[in-house]
Amino acid sequence: MKITLHSPVDMHIHFRQDAMLSLVAPLSAQHFAGGVIMPNLIPPVNGVERLQSYTAEVLEAVKPHAFEPYMTLFFRDYTEQELAAAKPHMLGIKLYPAGATTNSEAGVREIGAMDRVFKMMEEQGIPLLVHGETHGFVMDREREFCAIYRHLATTYPNLQITMEHITTLDALRLLDEFTNLRATVTMHHLVITLDDVVGGLMNPHLFCKPIAKRPEDRDALLQAALAAHPKLMMGSDSAPHPIDKKECPGCAAGVFTAPILLPLLAELFARHGALDNLQAFTSDNARRLYSIDPPPKRVVLEDIPMTIPASYNTVVPMWAGRSIGWSVTEVV
Ligand code: DOR
Ligand code: ZN
């Protein structure tokens, strides 16, 4: 079996900086025509100059691949002028609740105090990308945040809101309720549950935020992805951390999947007889929802087995050492 994908895009990636950027950016750019680059660096990408300098670093790191970085700003209390100046250089603004995940300490403490910024983003047509978790009990954080999504979607009907990396049936249901909500989902949340993380011996390489949930959540997300739900986009949340930050007490949150995303997705979609929907899930939905036009790239996948490497330099990928049934055989 064989499938050709046209300009796949990864709508949620962590590229980091410096040596890590040089290591991981080409691993996405070899298979993807573009991707949404997250701004949770130290310090965060929260000004137009920093946005432009980080864009230049990313463009340097993805060479020689054709890859369009869709940049994001880190949400803060911006002025109207700052938003207008940044708009041409980015896809949208990413909101992190303070402390919700890696490098998010500078995030929002009181979402209710940010009405002015949401209003200006709505007026200027700047999409809002959201890490939707409260500070409640870890398994309930996303479900609790749905009330905030409802509030935002209702109060700002013309604000385009992306619920990033959804992990629950509750979040999935919101998609069909509000026209201005869309969502990304990771590959790993389509295939794992909390059992894979802590049900047996703990697997730090599957520990991420939001944490993997229950089988019924995973199954609902998988069905929506396999059906290429028109408001659902593949956003890997590929989040590399060096091995010593994962295999230690105080394990950092993040699953590194960039180099194995397309083979694993092809295998998954093929197993469920849904290969025809992989193009929409990995590219067409995102193009339509964000009106983006990534550079042409043809990626051929075939059911030829490969073994996931034990590591990529300092970073251990999801399911390291496992054999999978599909691989990328050609990129043009
Ligand atoms: O697990 C995660 N890791 N979730 C996030 O939201 C951020 C990411 C990271 O930057 O490491
Ligand atoms: Zn992320």
Structure description:
The chain is of the alpha/beta class and about 325 residues long. The protein has a single domain, classed as Alpha-Beta Barrel (TIM Barrel), CATH 3.20.20.140. About 35% of the residues lie in helices and about 15% in strands. It is built from twelve helices and 13 strands. Strands 2-3-4-5-6-7-8-9 form an eight-stranded parallel beta sheet. The protein has a three-stranded antiparallel beta sheet with strand order 1-10-13. Helix 5 links the parallel strand 6 and strand 7. Helix 1 crosses helix 2. The longest helix is centred in the N-terminal third of the chain and has 15 residues. The mean pLDDT is about 100. The protein binds (4S)-2,6-dioxohexahydropyrimidine-4-carboxylic acid and zinc ion (ZN). (4S)-2,6-dioxohexahydropyrimidine-4-carboxylic acid binds next to loops.
Assembly form of the protein: single chain
Instruction: Kindly report the average pLDDT value.
Output: 98
| Helix vs. strand class | alpha/beta
Strand order of the largest sheet: 2-3-4-5-6-7-8-9
Number of helices: 12
Stretches with pLDDT under 50, minimum 5 residues: none
The set of bound ligands, ions and cofactors reads: (4S)-2,6-dioxohexahydropyrimidine-4-carboxylic acid, zinc ion
What is the CATH superfamily label?
A: Metal-dependent hydrolases
Sheet of most strands: 8 strands, parallel
**CATH second-level architecture:** Alpha-Beta Barrel
Count of DSSP E strands? Answer: 13
**Count of separate structural domains:** 1
Radius of gyration: 18 Å
- The level of helicity is 25-40%
The first-to-last residue Cα distance is 19 Å
- Give the overall silhouette: globular
At the fold tier of CATH, the topology name is: TIM Barrel
